[in-house]
Design goal:
Blueprint (H helix, E strand, L loop, with lengths): L1 H36 L5 H13 L8 H17 L4 E6 L5 E5 L8 H18 L3
Antiparallel strand pairs: 1-2
């Protein structure tokens, strides 16, 4: 039994370290975005920005459905980096269309958010931001 307790403690410590590293990297990204846009973005706003970047969609008045579509494009784009989605092509309006090719891991909400944040950070790193 004692060995099991040690494994749980090791896993908990490793998870905390990974979460702390992720949080530090996220704060650095937030600071860069604040410097660029003058406002601290939450995860949804960052996904919205990625969606706009990936689609080239610029419009003054954006509907709730368009925002959701842009965020969906962003999620597909960032998760495509790990092979979860594959770009199938673009529609006549230039919007990318993705196909899910790998099952996403089942996670509780806080871990889902960290999973997405980690992929967002990779996206910005690859963009040279």
């Amino acid at each position: 039994m004692q060995g099991d307790d040690g494994m749980v403690l090791l896993f908990t410590f490793a998870h905390m370290f990974i979460s702390d590293d992720l949080q530090q990297r996220w704060w650095v990204l937030e600071a860069k975005l604040v410097e660029r846009f003058g406002k601290k973005p939450d995860l949804e706003a960052v996904l919205f920005l990625i969606g706009m970047q990936e689609t080239g969609f610029l419009q003054e008045n954006i509907s709730k459905e368009q925002k959701q579509d842009l965020m969906h494009v962003a999620v597909c784009k960032v998760l495509s980096q790990s092979g979860y989605y594959l770009l199938e092509g673009h529609d006549p309006d230039g919007w990318p269309h993705y196909k899910q090719v790998k099952e996403l891991p089942v996670m509780v909400l806080p871990l889902q958010e960290n999973f997405i944040k980690d992929h967002v950070l990779l996206y910005f790193e690859q963009q040279g931001f």
